[in-house]
Structure formats: structure tokens, C-alpha cells
Amino acid sequence: MDTIKIGDLSVNRLGFGAMRVCGPNVWGPPKDRAGALKLLRRAYDLGCNLFDTADSYGPFVDEELIAEALHPYPKDLVIATKGGLVRPKPSRWDENGRPEHLREAIEGSLKRLRVQRIDLYQLHAPDPQVPLEDSLGALADAQKAGKIRHIGVSNFDVKQLERARKVAKIVSVQNRYNLEDRHSDDVLAVCERQGLAFLPWFPLGAGNSLSLSKIKKLAKEKGTTPAQIAIAWLLARSPAMLPIPGTSSIAHLEQNVAAANITLSKEELKALS
């Protein structure tokens, strides 16, 4: 599997989005805790050495599961978590970019993940009620204090990314991106030029992309699954791309990882574009 840089860290180019190991609606513990722990360990064994999570997943459950499954962590495992969204109930994802909240969120993630320093801490989303500079400033302060190794952002547009980079060294962007939704093409282009990693969330379009006739046709021709085609397309789309498909199924996990070995020709890529 190819590798990519996140700051000074090198990871395999297919990570694991751990959100779906929580309970339904990303709320509460998984129904099968032992199965969730087994899934997390299997993801690492298959070569996914970047795990993406957030304190809002569960909330808090996801980080605890990762620590339970894999701590003490393998030396090459990079854990990326996020703060800045709160969950008062399952249907709510509310922005909270206040510096005091982010300071508390970082401390909570450190404790749950059982680490002294977080490899990659991402602002989960801009808070329209708080200047970006204040939110990113809290992360920069935590980095100076040795609590964060690298800083990333999520759900940012180009202008917001430019503002963030004036406050802190940003190494990654995590935005929604898949075959059907390419609204962040301009952000991806900035990542390519500036050497930032781009982590597409909803890389399979929540399954919607997989029903497209052009994907199903190509998957049938190549003897693969539509999900594998969608992941292979992302990997071919840009060298900055670091897909993090998630699943609660070991069978689907193994299929997703196998997509890293699929090569799409120029003609096939054109057919998908």
C-alpha cells in the first residue's frame, strides 16, 4: 500500500474511519462490543495505520473503544481525533469552537485515548459564533504545550483554510468528498499545492454513489464491488487523497482495504468522471 505524509508522520494511504463502530446513529456503545474491538484490531492488522475518530462519536465512546482495542499502541499507528462539535442528543451536531470548550475537549480526548500527546487533532467544523482565529488559537496553544503533535481542520472552505494557516501550521483537511460530491475540489487543489493531506469523509457517499450505473458497470467488468471502485477512484483522483472508509463489518472492511490494490486505467477514470 502506498504511503502519504501527515506533517512528519508517514501513514498508509488508506485509513480507517472509526465512527461506525459506535451504536446506531453514532450514539452510545456498540451492540456487540467484542465485535467492535475485533473490527478495530483487524483494521490495523490489514494495514490501516491511521484511525480517524472524534469526541462527538458516541459521544466519547469511539475514543474509548480505540484505546480498549489497541492500547498500548503500535509505534506506527497514528490516531486522528476531532473536537468542536457537541451532541446534546442523537439528532444534534452543534458547533462549539469556543477556546474554553476546545481546551476541555483536548483534555478529554487525551484521557480517553490514554495518550500524552494527540498525533493529529482536527477542528471538527468552524463555529459561526466564534472567530476561526480564536478556535485555532486554542489548538495552537495546546500544540505548544505538547498536547497536540499536528493540527488539521474539517469542513473548511478555501478562505477558511487560508485564515487557519495564518494562525497555526495545518497539515490536513477533512471534507466531504466522493464521486458524486466534489464541491471541495478547490480545497483539494490547495492541499495538493501546499503538501497537505486531504481526508474525504463519506468517501462512498453514504452508499449513494454505489448505485450509479457507471460504477456498477465498471465493478462488474473488473470483478470487484462498487465500493471498491469508489475507493480506487479516490486514490487515483489525487496524491493528496487519504480515504478513511468506515464500516461495522469485518467483511466490508476487508473489501475496502483490498481496493488499494485496484488500478483504474485512464479510460476507466474518464468513464467515472
Distance between the termini: 24 Å
Largest sheet: 7 strands, parallel
Could you give the order of strands across the largest sheet? 3-4-5-8-9-10-11
Q: Choose one word for the global shape.
A: globular
CATH superfamily: NADP-dependent oxidoreductase domain
Write down the domain tally.
1
Q: Which class do the helix and strand fractions yield?
A: alpha/beta
List keywords for this structure.
273 residues, alpha/beta, seven-stranded parallel sheet, 10 helices, globular
What does this structure look like?
The mean pLDDT is about 95. The chain is built from 10 helices and 11 strands. The relative contact order is 0.14. The protein has helices at about 35-45, 60-70, 100-115, 130-145, 160-165, 185-195, 215-220, 225-235, 250-260, 265-270; strands at about 5, 10, 15, 50, 80-85, 85, 95, 120-125, 150-155, 170-175, 195-200. Helix 1 (about 35-45) crosses helix 2 (about 60-70) and helix 3 (about 100-115) crosses helix 4 (about 130-145). Strand 9 (about 150-155), helix 5 (about 160-165) and strand 10 form a beta-alpha-beta unit. It is globular and about 55 Å long. The chain is an alpha/beta fold. It has one domain (about 5-270): TIM Barrel, CATH 3.20.20.100. It has a 7-stranded parallel sheet, with helices on one face. It has a two-stranded antiparallel ribbon with strand order 1-2. Strands 6-7 form a two-stranded antiparallel ribbon. The chain is about 40% helix and about 20% strand.
